[in-house]
Design the sequence.
């Protein structure tokens, strides 16, 4: 499930309150009643903060990998006859309920994770959500298309290839930022994008010639092809085009958030945006859900897919305070490696030296782009 980009970390209200000095990452001492500095409290708080960062790193990685693998297993291997709309709307319902609780009721229980203050009360805040919701209609429609395309892709290409090709969203976001926002990029970032594209091309070519699409899809394609090899290639090509379209829409909607919704980020939390997005998404999914039989044909795998889809959007909101761009890049990189290996080992996906080497190149390209060629640990030592 897609979720709105996070607000700046400085704007989120932390669950654990930590006093900081002028350097945003240096923790100060906490004074007791007699004015004496207490290093124990600071050390404990810092340790807890670091544990939360590692927790969300692992959670983001596992959610990303397992959601892709299970969708591939459900739609591409088992070929379950389940409505895509029912899977997606199930996740949206979960996301809507959790986000509504976190936004409106969690502060009453002392939980302040990414929430916004409500000085005028809950009813006034609800009215503000309704009033500002029209801007979220466009992202909801784009996410609707993206989610549909991801299911189309995972029916036809393996999970590892899907995960790697999906990283081209970095390229599309940069391209739309340059074209629409007139944003410029350093030579280091431009080179990293070139490495990314070249690596994805190598992996796609290897996967296209070594993957085995489902027999049902190949038999359907044979109606319009002369031989089985051409039919298998056409199946893979459709899946590849689907994920390429998805990443193009992802880049476009990221720029939309920066250009159109930038002014609202101080007034609405990620939970509020999730409520608006989930509401519009449910409206969009409902017509096809009704025509395809609601939740008919669901299995345990389907339930897990729906829950993991909702978890993706919720993790973004939960992790705003405790993750940064580098940590997210690390989670993405770990998910690429994990998904590629498990796709080969569990789901008979293609794997070889070209995929292994190119996956490492993708990881390096992502880190280079995020850090702009700088070493993050070197910056920490200089503080």
Sequence:
């Amino acid at each position: 499930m897609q979720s709105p980009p996070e607000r700046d970390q400085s704007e989120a209200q932390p669950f654990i309150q930590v006093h900081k000095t002028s350097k945003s990452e240096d923790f100060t001492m906490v004074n007791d009643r007699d004015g004496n500095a207490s290093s124990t409290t600071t050390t404990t708080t810092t340790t807890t903060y670091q544990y939360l960062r590692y927790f969300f790193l692992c959670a983001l990685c596992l959610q990303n990998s397992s959601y892709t693998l299970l969708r591939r297993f459900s739609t591409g291997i088992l070929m379950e006859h389940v409505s895509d709309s029912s899977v997606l709307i199930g996740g949206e319902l979960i996301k809507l309920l959790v986000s509504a609780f976190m936004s409106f009721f969690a502060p009453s229980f002392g939980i302040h994770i990414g929430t916004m203050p409500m000085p005028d009360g809950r009813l006034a805040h609800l009215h503000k959500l309704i009033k500002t919701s029209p801007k979220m209609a466009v992202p909801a429609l784009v996410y609707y298309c993206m989610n549909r395309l991801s299911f189309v892709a995972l029916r036809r290409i393996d999970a590892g290839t899907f995960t790697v090709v999906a990283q081209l969203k970095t390229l599309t976001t940069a391209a739309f930022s340059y074209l629409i926002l007139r944003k410029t990029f350093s030579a280091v970032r431009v080179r990293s994008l070139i490495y990314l594209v070249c690596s994805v091309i190598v992996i796609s070519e290897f996967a296209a010639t070594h993957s085995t699409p489902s027999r049902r899809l190949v038999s359907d394609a044979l109606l319009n092809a002369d031989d089985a090899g051409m039919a298998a290639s056409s199946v893979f090509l459709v899946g590849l085009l689907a994920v390429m379209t998805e990443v193009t829409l992802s880049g476009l909607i990221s720029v939309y958030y920066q250009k159109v919704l930038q002014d609202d980020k101080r007034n609405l939390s990620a939970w509020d945006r999730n409520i608006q997005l989930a509401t519009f998404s449910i409206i969009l999914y409902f017509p096809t859900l009704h025509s395809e039989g609601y939740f008919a044909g669901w299995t345990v795998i389907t339930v897990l897919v729906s829950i993991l889809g909702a978890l993706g959007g919720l993790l973004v909101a939960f992790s705003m305070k405790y993750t940064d761009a580098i940590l997210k890049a690390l989670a993405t990189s770990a998910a690429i490696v994990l998904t590629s290996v498990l796709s080969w080992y569990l789901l008979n996906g293609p794997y070889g030296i070209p995929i292994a080497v190119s996956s490492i190149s993708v990881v390096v390209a992502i880190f280079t782009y995020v850090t702009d060629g700088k070493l993050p640990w070197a910056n920490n030592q200089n503080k």
Q: What stands out?
A: The beta strands are 30-31, 37-38. The CA atoms of residues 71 and 151 lie 7 Å apart. Confidence is low (pLDDT under 50) at residues 6-35. The longest strand covers residues 30-31.
